[in-house]
Amino acid sequence: MSTILIVEDNEKNMKLARDVLQAKGYQTLEAVNGEDGVRLALEHIPDMVLMDIQLPDINGIEAFTRIRANAATAAVPVVAFTASVTPMDRSRITDAGFDGFIGKPINLKEFLETVRKTVEGAAR
Fold first, then answer.
1. What is the rounded CA–CA span in Å between residue 6 and residue 48?
2. Domain residue spans in the chain?
């Protein structure tokens, strides 16, 4: 069973992502800020991270950079999970090196397809 770390400060978005993923058989870990997200990634080495960009402490790009900087988590795929969908925001996210992008509000079919492809790709 794959484990997905959700880093999301909005309670409704967290609940939706958690419920959808758990209903599809994924285990989830949850962090409501970037610092906790980095800590949980290092402690548990999840199969994938869903990273919000706008977080209350360090932003998602900084948290992503810290996860990638550690040898233990450098290969963990990290997908941006954000309402920041302007072309400039997407460009910043892509330039940072994220493995994918899921916009909010989420489209359930696209959300699950992105998660499935990302987890399967990481398992190879």
1. 9
2. 3-123
Spatial neighbors of 64 by CB under 8 A, at least 6 apart, are 49, 51, 78, 96, 97, 98
Side chain identity at 1, as an amino acid letter?
A: M
SS3 content of the chain, % helix, strand, coil (to 5): 50, 20, 35
Residue type, 9: D
Distance (Å) of CA 92 to CA 28, 60, 64, 84: 27, 11, 12, 10
CATH code for the domain defined by 3-123: 3.40.50.2300
Q: Please list the pLDDT of the chain residue by residue as tens digits (124 residues).
A: 899 999 999 999 999 999 999 999 999 999 999 999 999 999 999 999 999 999 999 999 999 999 999 999 999 999 999 987 788 888 889 899 999 999 888 999 999 999 999 999 877 6
Question: Does residue 87 have a cis bond before it (omega within 30 degrees)?
Answer: no
Q: Nearest-CA neighbor of 79 among 115, 37, 34, 33?
A: 115
- Total-model pTM: 0.95
